[in-house]
Amino acid sequence: MPSKHFCGSPDHAVSRRAFLGSTAALAAAAAADMTGLDVLSSPALAGELKKGRKRVILLWLAGGASQLETWDPKPGAITGGPFRAIKTDVPGFQISELMPQMAKRMKTTCVIRGLNTRNGDHGSGAKLMMRGRRDEANLRYPDLGAVVAREMGRADSKVPDYVTFYTQTEGRSMAPGDAGFLGARFGPMELTTNNTPEFIRKLDTITDLDHRERADLRDLLGKQFAKGRQSDTMNSQNEAYERVRGIMASEKLFDVTQESQKVRDRYGPTQFAQQCLIARRLVEAGVPFVRVARAWWDSHGQNFETHQEMVPELDHVMATLIDDLGERGLLDDVMILTLAEFGRTPAINASLGRDHFASAWSMTMSGGGAKGGAVYGKTDPKGNTVVAEEVDAGSLFATIYSSLGINPNKNYYVGSRPIPLVNPGVEAIAALAK
Amino acid sequence: MKSPSPDTLKQVKDFSRPATVFAIAPVPGTERAFLGCQDFKVYEAEFSAAKFEPKELYAHESYVTGVAVAGKVVVSGGYDGKLTWWDTVAGKVVRTVDAHAKWIRKVISSPDGKLVASIADDMVCKLWDPTSGKLIRELRGHKEKTPQNFGSMLYAVAFSADGKFLATGDKVGHVVVWDVESGQQLATCEVAVMYTWDPVQRMHSIGGVRSVAFSPDGKQLAVGGTGKIGNIDHLEAKGRIEVFDWRAGKQTAEFPGDKHQGIVNRLAWAPDGSWLVGAGGAGEGFLIFLDGTTKKPVRQEKLPMHVHDFALSADCSTITSVGHNRIQIHKLG
Amino acid sequence: MRLRLVLAAIVFTLTANASPAADLPPADRTVETVVDDAIDAAIASAGVTPAPQTDDATVIRRLTLDLVGRIPTAGEVDAYVKSTDPRKRANLVDHLIASPGFTRHQASQFEVMLSPDIERRGSGAIREYMTAALKDNKPWDRIFRELMLPDESDPKQKGAADFLRPRVTDADKLTNDVSVAFFGVNVSCAQCHDHPLVKDWTQDHFYGMKAFLARTYDAGGTLAERGFGIVRFKPNKGAEKAARMMFLTGTKVEDSTAREMTKEEQKKEKDEAEAAKKTKKAPPKPAFSARAKLVDVSLEKGNSDFFARSIVNRMWHRFFGAGLVNPLDQMHSENPPTHPDLLAWLARDTAGHGYDLRRLIRGIVMSKTYSRGSRYPTEALPDARLFAVSRLKPLTPQQLATSLKLAAADPAGFDGKKPDEFEKLMEQYESSARGFASLIAQPTENFQIGVGEALLFSNGDRIMKEFLTDGGGSLLARLKATKDPKEAAGFLVKVVYGRPPTDDETSALVAYVQKRSDRPAEAYRQLLWALVTGPEFRFNY
Asked: Residue B210 gets which letter from DSSP?
């Protein structure tokens, strides 16, 4: 029975093939796919996978940080703004003077300067840059965090797979973590009001023993009910309850006071700094994906004041994170990304602001398999267009996946329809392969 | 001499510019002025010329945000942290000094032309000998960090009419009045409302004290900026002016703004004290005249551009406003 | 994997297209018999044994949850199970449909249906409007008309404007949302290009629909519409062109008002908007309303199939957990229904009976298909598209929260209440549960329950304070007087699940309590927790 309700591009012709389209088939396929994770419980395989098991810290610069005041300065151009460019440890490569600490660490970092993602709207731009592609009308793609959680997480993980901090309120609802068709199992644990996940701590009114045995009793009742019944949603509920105790055991990971004052001072006192320190604790404990959102860069007025305030914090925290991970021997396994929904216009408006701009902006990848010291892409002297090595959202995601050792052409299945991690035909940037 | 009434204000000239003009320093008794611009350059402009064609003099390495005329010398400063001395007679750069560790925000001269003051985001005000280029004094009293641990900024500076006092204002609304001779702090005023820190929604800040001006008798200090801002993506509050009895550190009047959105970048008093004028803007700009006594608005004029600075002629007959890609001249009287 | 093969192996043929009207079952038959005949015929031709009819306790739980949004009380279950009246199910259904709980619960369901994105759901005004509309049993076409053409001066229709209002700033989104909500068609793909796979949808369709809607705007808080306007788009191939008003069926509308507004007209509009802001009254309606035209055209004979089939499919989905066409917004020729004749008959029947939603709902829930069991004896389930086994439906946030409140209450509190007192009480329970409901995720297609919900239930103090209390009138307070753990356990299961416990359950629950003989109150609280967090409570089964 043909079922052609997926649009996008001709590549979806694959959906012509034997698509069942029934929820039972979906459930069965999802279950089969998920149990595939059990290979990790085989010690030999698990050992092999663990070696290369990468993790990601995404610094999400919500609202859209300016590429001109960070990674792609245009000193002297009428669009360049007041900040100068400074030399870095990569010969011939300069970044904004607002980032003196990163300037000494660009050998760890790959900069993509030629992003043209064509979407200057906060909401849909954020969706695009968290997923690497637009959702189809009826297919919600998993975002980067969910894919990394799925690929790098462990079925029996005691820690959350995907944690996201977004404490500021602006733009938060526009960029929620979203597991799309992978479902809630790979959805994020969202921290919005403070740095400890909600409901991670047992109430004082119940003993630990009772808390555990109560859950065992629930499990028993659930199994009775499940006899003769099949439902993917029901399975997800049981799995969620099974993970509760493990997640609770990870509470200390969110507690910065577990770190010495020296380490905390090194990151700095700001909320973003402390959250990045928690992110380091989380990835160290094996959490595959942590997003630390830092809002809100949307400087329609007073762009230079805003960036003069916020970029030095980013510079310091990012440099500290790189150093800290490096000293712990984790930098090869942990990739730090800076990304946003878009960058900012080269044109400076009457309010000395910069507006939304998605046609020539920048992002970075540090550590975790990224090609440090590489600069890919070139924008024109005013920063208005990409003149060489243009990168769109799809090939950026293919590059991130491939740097992490994930085959971007790998398929997930929705029903029997194969869905590759990036759209067919999208390739990783060959020049950035390590 | 009685200053002309703001009622008589009318626009007489309007020039478009290829780049934003951040600073203007008029040459007393002439229709000439020096301009500091977004294209990193300092220009000499003759407003009486048949064809308005500012002449490029020299360049900084970043935005030129301050220009001062002191006798036969022009001193300019910018985001490159440098001060450059220009000899207007010889028509050449005399010296360039790495004056500040961070971005210079303003350069002004004392009324008698014997001192030049520069302020920068290293939070220091420096007094210079315009002739020798010697650093005379450093005025330190503004904190380098905001209470939220981000870098602060030092935006505003002005001399009193007699040159004895100097006021500086920073991002978090802290204003200091200094004794020029001794370099001592005489008093401080707080204008916290001009600094908006958004702790939850957007987690950064906007605003700051952007302009200060002493009354002709030196007793009052007007402070310009903007009000509390809800959405700090934009300069969405009204231009705001407060007046202080600075010796007591006490606010005596406030004009929270009513018509015009934006930030007050420049303030000046009429020499007879009958009014004061603030200019600034957001997407567009404004001139706001307040009564010298009541501090109530007596005239408000919309300008097509965000105004960064103006020059008020000694007889108050001319206001030359500079800003986003435009210069406008208004006449009074 | 094995399961997948089994499923793939079940090949059965369903005719892709509905038979001509003459070949459909006669128009005078009841909804339930037509449903059962069509479903049973497909099951039979697939050679499959369907699940047996479920028991009475499950029937009343299913009906009460589906129709009024809560579990039944222990008393209601008992009375239903004991009754020997052959018409007891019909009586129950009629009673529930006539109750205020029905209009409230269905209104919440419609609110989610109309605005799946919570951001566009607004202040709850649509729910209020729908509650009032369903109370009057307004026909669906009338509701559609009022949602699309709200008369904001009529206080009864005020909430109706909240469908359009949050959407008018984005005509593209408005176009798609209207098409999805009322016609079961997602045309968003055709915004950028003719649909690559579905020949039904071209850019002309998307922009044709947009042309009806793009003139609508917000005049300072009230909805208004321009008398003129033109939608232009750039086709994939060729030069920019103007879109003609065109309905999904291809019906085009002759339109002399398709032009840009003049400067004067623009100024007039601005002034009217200013005036509207001051007087809070809508600017005058245009002589030609494109939006009204869309409503008329879509309900015209020959075009109304989209409208009728979509509401039938959505109601089917609401009560069966899946549509006859899935996904619900993909009703087009290349995604045929599982039971084309059934859908065609139901659409014709519904339109023929004045889009009476109660009639349709009543027919669906009176069918034997609806009361089939959710258990199946073998692991290899029949293909889900056959509706041979009932699906588990996760409770909506409000169903779950209200039911939690009820399960945690002493059932004696419901006894001996007059019908209107009982209804009032139910409404109170429902509103007191609303806050907690906002913490629960709204089910979507392929819904999964995340660890966040499990953590909330495991460690949230709201659960303890609002639900599992032993204060006056609570189930736990009642249990304090019970000395025998076995009796207490039986009572708990009865109240929460509406059935007696199995022997295994009894021994597990009793052992749990006996191990905590020093703290029986805590033990019972934990039993109640285990019961309400179990899937038997979380799902409508």
From this structure: -
